[in-house]
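Here is the promised in-class demo. Please do not try to memorize the tokens; focus on the logic of going from shape to residues.
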């Protein structure tokens, strides 16, 4: 069963911990029409181990170096996704400039919802032409310092979905509570994840993720 993405945004700030899986601070990297094993190999996983992966709950995560990641991975419709806590390996590789050309190939669409070294979720989206934009929580994909050319219209349609969901501050209905200073960010995060998931057709199984039942791979730190 798939449960959308809203539940990930809902728990983004919660700090909740589950014994065998993930529930808070889940970073999502997803690429359309890519084989799951191929994607995690691009991120540094050993192909042989990725082809015969254990379940996440069975991995001794403390046995790896502190900078490394143990990720869950799988498929949702046309999308292959990788889930990590606190940070995404894809973004670390991208920021460092190491092997960027092998991460996402021409014609592939990518979305990454990450911490980007901060507390709020950060969105990176790339369409099939290779055009990319990154925005902070509550921002618009179109109202940036360098607006996208958007030859496919993909940025405009995703931005419209975010606005309709109230995930852009200009369209946020206003749920400020002086007694709950984090309330606005929490609501925006939930709306952001919901909008991205619904628009792109990306839906992830909450029970399997919380219980660590998805396949897992070790991703060495690229830094």
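The designed amino acids, position by position:
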């Amino acid at each position: 069963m798939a449960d959308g993405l809203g539940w990930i945004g809902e728990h983004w700030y919660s700090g909740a911990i589950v014994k065998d899986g993930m529930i808070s601070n889940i970073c999502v990297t997803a690429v359309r029409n890519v084989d799951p094993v191929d994607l995690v190999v691009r991120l540094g996983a050993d192909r042989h181990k990725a082809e015969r992966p254990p379940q996440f709950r069975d991995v001794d995560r403390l046995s790896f170096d502190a900078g490394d990641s143990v990720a869950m991975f799988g498929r949702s419709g046309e999308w292959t996704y990788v889930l990590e806590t606190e940070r995404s390996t894809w973004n670390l590789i991208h920021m460092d400039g190491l092997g960027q050309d092998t991460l996402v190939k021409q014609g592939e669409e990518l979305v990454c919802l990450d911490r980007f070294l901060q507390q709020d979720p950060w969105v990176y989206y790339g369409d099939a032409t290779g055009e990319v934009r990154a925005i902070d929580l509550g921002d618009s994909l179109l109202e940036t310092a360098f607006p996208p050319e958007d030859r496919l219209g993909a940025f405009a349609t995703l931005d419209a979905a975010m606005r309709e969901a109230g995930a852009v501050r200009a369209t946020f209905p206003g749920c400020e509570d002086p007694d709950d200073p984090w309330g606005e960010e929490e609501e925006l995060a939930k709306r952001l994840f919901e909008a991205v998931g619904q628009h792109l057709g990306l839906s992830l199984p909450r029970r399997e993720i919380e219980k660590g039942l998805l396949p897992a791979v070790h991703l060495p730190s690229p830094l």
